[in-house]
Specification:
The complex is a heterodimer.
Chain A: H1 8-27, H2 30-46, H3 56-75, H4 81-87, H5 96-104, H6 108-119, H7 124-131, H8 135-153
Helix pairs in contact in A: 1-2, 1-3, 2-3, 5-8, 6-7, 6-8, 7-8
Chain B: H1 6-22, E1 28-33, E2 40-45, E3 48-54, H2 60-70, E4 74-76, H3 78-92, H4 110-120, E5 128-129, H5 130-136, H6 143-150, E6 164-165, H7 178-188, E7 205-206
Parallel strand pairs in B: 1-4, 5-6
Antiparallel strand pairs in B: 1-2, 1-7, 2-3
Helix pairs in contact in B: 5-6
The chains are: A mainly alpha, B alpha/beta.
């Protein structure tokens, strides 16, 4: 059983490559992966010490996933007209405000899934990685979220 | 785009360390320096050099001491070790006789600190004995304790414990091995040692990407 890291340096040397690769998979962009990597390790340093035993890696993955959702929210506070059509293709005259409010009513898991899939157009595989669930579960969340958003816009 | 590219991560890491420093989360910056005596794991804080460990990483005891004194905020940071790297390079090239970088003796016992300070005053190219160092540290009868303290000098080379030998003239001990001690003493006598000084590559900094 591996001892938890004793220093920030040890934590970085053990996990930074993997976390950077994960950040890249989640964000798909170098600059955003860079930010996510930094936010993840800063949060780990602030939240020191790491959990006991073998949970150190899972701890970092969880931080990275939550930070990815945070960064997403900050970066994309509004939705484009194109995305609006995707979300509600059979309605005219829906404002961004309407859609924004509809998305806000979704539970967090569904909201993240909906935004990542429908708004950002990411593959289900990435949505599943970010939300730590199966692809099947990610599809279900998106589908339920889409139904709710449509209902809210009627 | 290659996620595993060391440069990509090195850039991100540099920015991370800068941010962590601004938040006062960092205490020491370290890197592994190449030297003619092999790799030296070297850590530097605001008060100076905290440790120089022979090898790619500090041994478990030294790491425990560093964490006890400086906390967990010990990060890879080549910028922090640049100055001592340059001075060590000059020293190994025979172009430097004294170090300008400070030695950070925070957290050591008063006796330990006194022994190391007495050792730091032994001039380049000279040798002295454990008994003499103990005497200068204020306790002539503590030569064995002085030997013990110097067997675990956290900052070898900069605090030149290689200049301290046994009273009977034998070399005594050395953390980097007796061969390293012999080579350092030969360097300071101006002798061209086997294998040649300085190393061909000089003291280059190596990243510690795991």
């Amino acid at each position: 059983m591996k001892e938890p890291a004793k220093t920030f340096g040890e934590l970085l040397e053990r996990h930074e490559r993997e976390i950077f690769a994960y950040a890249l998979r989640l964000t798909g962009r170098r600059e955003e992966a860079d930010d996510l990597y930094q936010e993840t390790f800063l949060a780990a340093f602030r939240g020191w010490p790491p959990p006991r035993r073998d949970h150190e890696r899972a701890w970092l993955y969880k931080i990275a996933t939550n930070k990815a959702i945070d960064l997403d929210r900050r970066r994309r506070p509004t939705v484009s007209i194109e995305d609006l059509r995707l979300a509600a293709p059979d309605r005219d005259g829906i404002t961004l405000l309407d859609l924004g409010s509809a998305i806000k009513t979704l539970p967090a898991g569904q909201r993240a899934a909906f935004v990542m899939r429908t708004v950002e157009g990411r593959p289900y595989r990435e949505v599943a990685v970010a939300l730590e669930c199966s692809e099947e579960a990610a599809r279900t969340r998106v589908s339920e979220a889409t139904k709710k958003v449509r209902a809210a816009l009627r | 785009m290659n996620a595993g590219s060391p440069d990509v991560i090195a850039d991100a890491r540099e920015r991370l360390i800068a941010r962590a420093r601004r938040e006062h989360l960092v205490t020491l910056g370290y890197s592994v320096l190449d030297s003619p005596l092999g790799p030296l794991w070297t850590a530097v804080g605001p008060r100076g050099v905290a440790t120089i460990s022979y090898g790619q990483e500090p041994d478990a005891r030294e790491l425990r001491r560093l964490v006890a004194v400086f906390g967990p905020g010990i990060v890879p940071d080549r910028k922090r070790t640049d100055e001592v790297a340059r001075e060590l390079d000059q020293y190994f090239a025979g172009k430097r006789r004294e170090f300008d970088v400070a030695a950070d003796l925070t957290g050591l016992t008063p006796f330990y600190g006194a022994i190391l300070r007495a050792t730091a005053r032994v001039p380049y190219g000279k040798v002295t004995t454990y008994r003499e160092v103990a005497k200068r540290a204020g306790n002539e009868r503590a030569s064995r304790a002085a030997g013990g303290a110097l067997s675990w000098n956290p900052i070898p080379i900069v605090v030149p414990c290689h200049r301290v030998v046994a009273t009977d003239g034998s070399l005594g001990g050395y953390a980097g091995g007796l061969d390293a001690k012999r080579r350092l003493l030969a360097l300071e006598r101006g002798e061209a040692p086997e294998g040649g000084w300085p190393s061909k590559r000089g003291l280059t900094r190596r990243s510690r990407s795991a």
